[in-house]
Amino acid sequence: MRITFRFRWIPFIAALIAVAIGVSLGNWQMRRADQKETIEKSLFSREAAPPVVLNSALASIDDIEYRRVIADGEFVRDWPVYLENRPHDGKPGFHLLMPLKISGSDRYVLVARGWLPRDPADRTKLPAIETPQGAVRIKGVARRNPGQLLQLGEASDLRPGAIVQNISVDEVAKASGFAMQPFVIEQHGEAADGLVRDWPRPSSGIDKHLGYAFQWYALAATAFIFFVVTGFRRGAR
Q1: Contacts for 205 with CB less than 8 Å, ≥ 6 apart
Q2: Reported pTM
Q3: Is 33 helix (H, G, I), strand (E, B) or coil?
């Protein structure tokens, strides 16, 4: 029996679409893995550098990102902002952000103070958090932003005590009128304020992206092989 390949347009177009999707998404996952590898290299080198002591001078975000920083100042206690949908150990909660006025200057810096749990019955009911009065010293790592999530619905107006999905330093500066440093400090170290400071590493998830890339490439290969095999089967029949 002679076996031939029988070409049909509909299976060919379906296979072509599946291959294109698989390769495109696989490439995207590989780019994400490469980006995180670059971040990891930058983290390794910059975390080893001496900490930067903040003052009134405006820092460059490209120079200071991922560097360890020290800021002496006083928290603006009446300007807390809560980032929602920030789970920790499987529990829903918020990240608490608050501006810090840098000592001896009119410059402010936004501090991500830590994680706190969400009330399971009422998301707007926030637990009381102790904020130090007077001068404090904050140690942490400079980040370009406190992490961006997919925005669901319209963003709430930014005001003291607001619960928002995402936030940027520029938005805080505009809403508060404060002259802000162009970055966020992820606060590290222990403090008697009840907050959890277990920040996700920006470069985490490289293996996950590589695994997803393999799955998408496998989907593309499977679609191509299926098209070829079924084409020969049709020819045989």
Answers
A1: 36
A2: 0.70
A3: helix
Q: pLDDT tens across 176-188, in order?
A: 999 999 999 999 8
Closest-CA residue to 174 (of 84, 108, 94):
108
**Residue reference for tokens 């400071």:** 197
Tokens of residue 89, six digits: 């150990």
**C-alpha distances out from residue 140 to 44, 112, 185, 201, Å:** 15, 9, 6, 13
Sign of CA dihedral 20, 25, 28, 34: negative
**For the CA atoms of the chain, what is the radius of gyration?**
25
pLDDT tens-digit profile of 38-91?
Answer: 777 776 767 777 888 998 888 888 888 888 999 999 999 999 999 988 888 888
Rounded CA gap, 2 and 144, in Å?
A: 65
Q: How far does CA 70 lie from the centroid of its chain?
A: 22
CB neighbours of 61 closer than 8 A, spacing ≥ 6? 142, 144, 182, 183
Rounded to a whole number, what is the distance in angstroms from the first to the last CA of the chain? 10
Q: Is 136 helix (H, G, I), strand (E, B) or coil?
A: strand
The CA angle 110-100-48, to the nearest 5 degrees, is: 65
Structure tokens at 186: 């992820």
Using alpha carbons, select from 204, 201, 202, 191 the residue that is nearest to residue 113.
191
Q: What integer pLDDT is reported at residue 182 of this predicted model?
A: 94
pLDDT at 69: 92
